[in-house]
Design brief:
By secondary structure, this protein is an alpha+beta fold. 47% of the residues lie in helices and 18% in strands. It has helices at residues 3-16, 21-37, 40-50, 55-61, 89-92, 102-116; strands at 69-74, 78-83, 122-128, 137-143. Strands 1-2-4-3 form a four-stranded antiparallel sheet. Strand 1 (69-74) and strand 2 (78-83) form a beta hairpin. It is globular. The N and C termini lie far apart (43 Å). The relative contact order is 0.17.
Length: 144
């Protein structure tokens, strides 16, 4: 890995950690949208369609497709999405190691959910992350 790029991303992480929560959300929203539009959004859309556009069936069946594990917490309202490994390419390439980047994942999930069911408003909470020292990345998704 290029040493300058590794250093640059460490400065990037330091800068992100200086922002407040709202600023971090705004910063990562566009990044997340572009990232998921590169491929994973299409896979989730196709699978959602296969599930009859039913979020309960979608989340109950996610692990069948290796798209993470899904759980229905409250039918037609609250779900959890769990990943047993970090799926962030920047982490896989060794550029980032701080869980500040996990806001991008939260924003990605929010963008995916809004794209799947555009007549609903979603809230996504980061419950745990691998980069934050946990054994899994867990996000709670709730329809407002």
């Amino acid at each position: 890995m290029n040493e300058f790029m590794k250093e640059w991303f460490s400065w990037f992480e330091e800068g992100i950690e200086l922002l407040d929560e709202a600023q971090v959300s705004v910063f990562f929203s566009k990044c997340a949208e572009n990232c998921v539009n590169r491929g994973v959004l299409g896979m989730y859309r196709e699978f959602y369609s296969e599930c009859g556009n039913d979020l309960d069936i979608f989340f109950e069946s996610l692990s069948d497709k290796n798209y993470g594990s899904g759980y229905v917490i409250e039918p037609q309202n609250t779900y959890e999405l769990v990943f047993s490994e970090c799926t962030c390419e920047l982490n896989k390439l060794g550029y980032v190691s701080s869980d500040c980047i996990c806001e991008c994942s939260r924003q990605s999930i929010l963008h995916i959910m809004q794209s799947l069911k555009n007549d609903a408003v979603f809230e996504v909470d980061k419950l745990s992350t691998i980069l934050g020292g946990n054994s899994e990345c867990r996000f709670r998704i709730k329809i407002k």
